[in-house]
Backbone:
């Protein structure tokens, strides 16, 4: 009789029952926790030669877990914020595991709780200039199925300001074509928002759906990988990395930041909207931020914006200006370059 693997049994119960039924966590949170274990398994296989089915609590000592987090930063090029997010996922599981198996999981629990979160000094959002974003959106050139998908994906990622997971979750039913094309995005805490995209991006998306994939089901996900109908964040990350390598090689004087990610597209549209004079409350709603204070970070990315929003205007004016008039109008006045997608 095959011996049961306690670690895998507890992990399975945690992901399929505890997080779903007991805690009632959102799909995105559960997906994030699941992805943390997927990455851990990849690390253990590559660096320790331990296959997933052989992973035990005793293998997860503090040194191994710290090496895993370091591997995320160096090999996977994850930000400090993402590194801390993965540690939080491990911490949540550790608390559940030690409650289920106090003796077996005690070492793992103590190891995880002994690792501090890393201080994140990256307070200024990393974004693309208008010239850089134009280059990125034009790089996937050609008529191949994958290339066309990538061109559409990068355009939608920028035009909607979507988080990577929000992009992956877009289904055909979430898109409404018309004189103004809108897309429904479901963000953190299952909060939904509707954003309007520029005409050229809408035309590209419509052609992609009709002529490339010929999707007939409203429940089909708009972006799929070669192996999964529902694309994952890691796939989006790899697509962005691919074109960043090309962009940096072809434009050595541009793309000077060290770590661009899919989130940089979200930062970019926010900064470009601010530069175009779009009020902060509109950008807050467009991005789905919980508070205006979060959106204010974009007013600090350059001296020009600092002067515009923090000196020339009072803070109250910057926060409240034109709220009633523009609160739900997600258009792009002053961003004519979007029409060149």
Residues:
């Amino acid at each position: 009789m095959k011996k049961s693997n306690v670690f895998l049994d507890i992990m399975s119960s945690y992901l399929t029952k505890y997080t779903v039924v007991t805690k009632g966590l959102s799909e995105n949170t559960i997906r994030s926790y699941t992805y943390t274990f997927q990455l851990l398994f990849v690390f253990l296989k590559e660096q320790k030669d331990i296959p997933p089915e052989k992973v035990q609590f005793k293998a997860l000592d503090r040194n191994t877990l710290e090496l895993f987090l370091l591997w995320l930063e160096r090999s996977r090029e994850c930000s400090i914020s993402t590194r801390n997010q993965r540690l939080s996922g491990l911490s949540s599981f550790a608390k559940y595991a030690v409650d289920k198996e106090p003796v077996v999981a005690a070492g793992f629990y103590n190891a995880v709780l002994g690792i501090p979160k890393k201080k994140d000094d990256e307070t200024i959002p990393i974004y693309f200039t208008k010239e850089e974003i134009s280059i990125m959106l034009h790089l996937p050139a050609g008529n191949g199925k994958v290339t066309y998908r990538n061109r559409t994906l990068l355009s939608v990622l920028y035009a909607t300001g979507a988080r990577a997971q929000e992009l992956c979750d877009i289904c055909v039913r979430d898109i409404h074509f018309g004189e103004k094309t809108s897309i429904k995005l479901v963000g953190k805490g299952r909060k939904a928002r509707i954003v309007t995209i520029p005409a050229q991006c809408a035309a590209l998306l419509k052609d992609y759906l009709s002529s490339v994939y010929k999707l007939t089901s409203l429940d089909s996900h708009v972006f799929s990988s070669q192996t999964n109908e529902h694309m994952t964040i890691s796939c989006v990350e790899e697509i962005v990395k691919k074109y960043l390598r090309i962009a940096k090689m072809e434009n050595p004087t541009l793309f000077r930041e060290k770590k661009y990610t899919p989130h940089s597209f979200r930062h970019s549209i926010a900064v470009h909207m601010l530069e175009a004079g779009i009020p902060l409350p509109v950008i807050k709603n467009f991005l789905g931020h919980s508070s205006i204070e979060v959106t204010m970070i974009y007013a600090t990315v350059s001296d020009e914006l600092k002067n515009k929003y923090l000196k020339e205007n009072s803070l109250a004016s910057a926060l409240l200006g034109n709220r009633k008039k523009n609160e739900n109008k997600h258009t792009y006045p002053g961003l004519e370059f979007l029409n060149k997608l």
